[in-house]
Amino acid sequence: MKILTISHALPQARYQRCPQCDTLFSLPDVKSNESAHCPRCNARILNGRDWSMTRLTAMAVTMLLLMPFAFSESLVSIRLLGTNISATLIGGIYQMAQQGNVITASMVAFCTIGAPATLVASIAYLYFGKRLGMNLRPVLLMLERLKEWVMLDIYLVGIAVASIKVQDYASITPGPGLVAFISLAVLSLVTLIHMNIEQLWHRFYPQPQPQISPDRLRVCLSCHHTGLPDERGRCPRCHTPLRHRRRFSLQKSWAALIAAIVLLIPANLLPISVIYLNGARKEDTILSGILSLGSGNVPVAAVVFIASILVPFTKVIVLLTLLISIHFNCEQGLKTRIRLLRVVTWVGRWSMLDLFVISLTMSLVNRDQLLAFTMGPAAFYFGSSVILTILAVEWLDSRLLWDAHATGNADYTD
Ligand SMILES: [Zn+2]
Ligand SMILES: [Zn+2]
């Protein structure tokens, strides 16, 4: 890790403002195994890892070839009441749409099929678009946001959890699609780790260092370029409006957070899954499902507890204290809370785990009156709440926190 230094003495230095706290500093050169962090808030500014477009395209082509098998071949199969039933990713989503709720099924479909397919398509677009001289800006802007929505790794853990849950009713065997799915999940992870979007921007749209006082420089929150707005007030590199602070950041963040808190109530009180066993109906809330899982397998129950209860509630509480502290200029433990927010943001996507498990279990355990598993109404509220907390973090301009800290007076206008 390199610590950056603030030096106004070097006119040739490449200046950068931290997109999270607005500190101005000059960038050092970073080697491939190093990363550079902001001296004030410790946000990662530069990452040395960088793959060429050729390598990224090779990965995208491999992922494209694996996708049909990973999505439509059997992942696991069980022998239940004399018949073989196999679960596929698409089959699980189809069951969810048919018996449960189309919106919840779309959430699962987006995170497991839509986002990975968009990743592959975006890399292909960059590769060919560059040769054809097309506008690459929208794709580069989208790629930065797409990262946290590719949830193949979480679905993989979901397969394991669903298998352990279903083991009570039937013996389970891995299917032929599982190898393709594991390969796809690993490839997508490796690609996302090595795809350096900052470097791609730099390569496709190089910008000259403006020869002015560095104090007038602004950082673009969309592409992290530090420079002056063009004559239309836009970022010269990505063409999004370059403002002093993001507009309506607090209003949007509050709206998403309050909606997420309200949705967490039915998500935890209503049943999330319903099992019909020999005609008897048994409903499970998130908590009772974890408790019954815990009686058989404590580590798996712990994983589901962290993903479905601990992380969503911690995230909501941390966000709430951060938003309140902007209004009241409270600066106690700001660094700790921001660090905590980064951790819960990083693990926040794991909250979708429970929905993936439900979708898989629905396609496995479905024998009409004898034994059936369906989704309860809480699944929709829970999924919406998770997505809203991801958006609340995305919409919060964290520089407002440091403004309140520095001046004791929050100024959140343009
Ligand atoms: Zn910073
Ligand atoms: Zn920009």
What ligands does this structure carry? zinc ion
Average per-residue pLDDT, rounded, comes to: 86
What is the helix tally?
14
Alpha-beta content class? alpha+beta
The arrangement of helices and strands along the chain is EEEEEHEEHHHHEHHEEHEEHHHHEEHH
Helix content: 55-70%
Distance between the termini: 34 Å
Q: How many domain units?
A: 2
Weakly predicted, low-confidence segments:
5-11, 408-414
Largest sheet: 4 strands, antiparallel
The count of DSSP E runs of length 2 or more, i.e. the number of strands, is 14
Shape descriptor: globular
The radius of gyration is: 24 Å
Strand order of the largest sheet: 12-11-14-13
Question: Beta-strand percentage?
Answer: 5-15%
Structure description:
The chain is an alpha+beta fold. The protein has two domains: 2-48 and 209-227, no CATH class; 53-199 and 243-407, no CATH class. Helices cover 55% and strands 12% of the residues. Strands 12-11-14-13 form a four-stranded antiparallel β-sheet. Helix 1 packs antiparallel against helix 3, helix 3 (102-132) packs across helix 4 (137-146) and helix 8 packs antiparallel against helix 13. The protein is globular and about 75 Å long. The two termini are 34 Å apart. Residues 5-11 and 408-414 have low confidence and may be disordered. The structure holds zinc ion (2 copies). The site of one zinc ion has 8 residues, from loops.
